[in-house]
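Quick one - inputs below.
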Amino acid sequence: MKELILASNNAHKVEEIKSILSDYNILTLKDINFTDEIIEDGLTFEENALIKARTISKYSGKTAIADDSGLSVELLEGRPGVYSARYSKEQTDAKNIEKVLSELDGKKSKAKFVSVIALVKPDGTELTFRGECHGEIISEQRGNNGFGYDPIFYVPSLEKTFAELSSDEKNSISHRKESLEKFSKFLKEENNEN
Ligand SMILES: O=c1nc[nH]c2c1ncn2[C@H]1C[C@H](O)[C@@H](COP(=O)(O)OP(=O)(O)OP(=O)(O)O)O1
Ligand SMILES: [Mg+2]
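Output:
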């Protein structure tokens, strides 16, 4: 089974990625004893995903992947965007949600989740794959599943928020599903050529 190191400290993300990439053996930062903080100071999801994957490929000498993701709200001109994890002073999911809802001041808005997967190989190869999922921000929180902004991200066609979906349902339509599908399609094509 093909092995990949996933550069993430987010247990929810790791679980989703392991479930979507079930054909791969995914190692995490704990498995390689990496405990440093990686500074995500890029200005785009692509830059931040590459910073994380590059750091871990260099550290391990192996192929690494990373996900950089976030929420982009139309009425907030795309915020919180790449700052999604650090949007509130406290930098917790609950406070980040509170800040978005307070800025929207009771209004609904179109929004999208973005996930960018970066692949970095020891030979210096660097690639990114982007997935997006469109929905709406609603003014109340619904559901207890998932993580991050899931309780306020509503999918009109399902009449549910991401936090009201099972993990299998979320993983079949999410931004992360789309980015990982592009990524695994690339890996499969690459392996058939060799
Ligand atoms: O499916 C999602 N459902 C809800 N919220 C989500 C999702 N995907 C990203 N998000 C939010 C969470 C966090 O506020 C930010 C990601 O920030 P991001 O830096 O990529 O991840 P992180 O710091 O949690 O873990 P790490 O960088 O170690 O992979 O966007
Ligand atoms: Mg992060």
